[in-house]
TrEMBL record:
Recorded superkingdom: Bacteria
Names of required cofactors: pyridoxal 5'-phosphate
This protein's record includes keyword Lyase: yes
Protein name: L-threonine ammonia-lyase
Residues annotated as signal peptide: none
InterPro entries hit by this protein: Ser/Thr_Dehydratase (IPR050147), TrpB-like_PALP (IPR001926), TrpB-like_PALP_sf (IPR036052)
């Protein structure tokens, strides 16, 4: 717990700087009450619409925070990603006028590969798995020619995500619980630190797919637990956590609860959101919404906010 407390303090010390750096570059995304999901949950469900953020997800907050943290560092940017983080890094590089190189696994989904190829970044396939791609990008970053923008395992990146939690609580101070998806943990840890800085009593809950439990089990144990993961519609949270990630002790220190959600609930929520809210959202966003619905039915909270974290979804998955 002491390690987690120290890491939380290190992120908190970076919050004001991250806010000042990234605010000119990001959108203040709206919050809306969902009448459909509120009725289903039996309380008020508030949607934080981060899927309409630049590049289609919350990821630009952390990417801008890291890219701008070192004044005068104008090296090309580099990262590893098979989805939202890569799109965010490409956007950040374009906004700052820098070249970007994004390494992706050879097994990347064709839909996401096409999205990345449509950006101005150089896309390079390296490694069969996300872990192999991450190892390749770390080796490349060690040469010093590029600025590496990690997807989550970095204090400045997490500080960037705290702006989302703080922004949400300022928009709607009556929220008494927040649900965010958890894979690598950068989103939910940042949201927890930012939200609790504004309203210390707010409950923050991490939602994980039942088929991708590495973060869930690691936080419960207080250390990294290697877990066999299966395919999930919440592919943005799958195979995401690397050993030794700082998000595990931060999550253990800051998260009030964690919850697992099955594939059926994720799929039904993606479909229902498309029909009733008229937006397509990815599985990791539907994961959080399905979790909020389940939590809402317990009657413990009056007003639950859900981070609708991204929209990188193949329409075929909504069938």
């Amino acid at each position: 717990m002491e390690e987690g407390t120290d890491l939380v303090g290190a992120v908190q010390a970076r919050m004001a700087g991250a806010e000042a750096r990234i605010r000119p570059h990001i959108r203040t995304t709206p919050v809306e009450v969902s009448s459909v999901f509120s009725k289903r949950a039996g309380n008020t469900i508030v949607l934080k619409l981060e899927h309409i953020q630049h590049s289609g997800s919350f990821k630009v907050r952390g990417a801008f925070s890291k890219a701008l943290a070192e004044a005068g560092d104008d090296r090309p940017v580099l990262t590893a990603s098979s989805g939202n983080h890569g799109l965010a890094v490409a956007h950040v590089a374009g906004a700052l006028g820098r070249p970007a190189e994004i390494l992706v696994p050879e097994t990347i989904a064709p839909f996401k590969y096409a999205l990345l190829r449509a950006t101005s970044a150089r896309i390079v396939k390296r490694g069969r798995t996300g872990y192999e791609t991450l190892a390749a990008v770390r080796e490349r970053a060690g040469k010093g020619t590029h600025l590496y923008l990690p997807p989550y395992n970095d204090l400045e990146v997490i500080a960037g995500q705290t702006t989302l939690g703080a922004e949400l609580m300022r928009q709607d101070p009556e929220i008494d619980a927040i649900v965010a998806s958890s894979g690598g943990g950068g989103l939910v840890c940042g949201v927890a630190i930012g939200a609790k800085a504004v309203k210390p009593g707010v409950t923050v809950i991490g939602a994980s797919a039942r088929n991708a439990q590495t973060f869930y089990r690691s936080v419960a144990a207080g250390h990294y637990v290697k877990t066999l993961e299966r395919p999930t519609l919440s592919d943005g949270t799958a195979n995401a956590l690397e050993p030794g990630s700082i998000t595990v002790p931060i999550g253990a220190a800051m998260l009030d609860e964690t919850i697992l959600i099955g594939e059926g609930a994720i799929h039904r929520t993606m479909q229902r959101f498309a029909r009733t809210e008229r937006w397509m959202i990815e599985g990791s966003a539907a994961l959080s919404l399905a979790a909020a619905e389940a939590i809402g039915k317990t009657g413990r909270f009056r007003r639950i906010a859900v981070i609708i974290c991204g929209r990188s979804v193949d329409p075929a998955k909504l069938v």
